[in-house]
Amino acid sequence: MMKIWPARCECPVSERSAEGVLSLPMFPELTQEEIKYVCDKLKEWSL
């Protein structure tokens, strides 16, 4: 099988951007329990 990407890709802009990006789960099926869990973890992280 042919590799599409090298084992280590040099993507400095993407890597630099990833350091300051926070991806949160957002979709209609999130339950109230899951929302509370995410909020609690965000509170812990921000302390």
Notable traits:
2 helices; 47 residues; elongated; mainly alpha; 47% helix
What would your notes on this structure say?
By secondary structure, the protein is mainly alpha-helical. 47% of the residues lie in helices and 0% in strands. The chain is built from two helices and no strands. The longest helix is centred in the last third of the chain and has 15 residues, at 32-46. It is elongated. It starts with 11 loop residues before the first helix and ends with a helix. The model has no long low-confidence stretch (mean pLDDT 85).
**Estimated share of beta-strand residues:** under 5%
CA-CA gap between termini: 47 Å
| Order of helix and strand elements from N to C terminus | HH
What is the CA-based Rg, rounded? 17 Å
- Low-pLDDT parts are none
Helical segment count: 2
User: Fraction of residues in helices?
Assistant: 40-55%
List the helices and strands and how they pair.
Blueprint: H1 12-18, H2 32-46
Short précis:
This protein is mostly helical and 47 residues long.
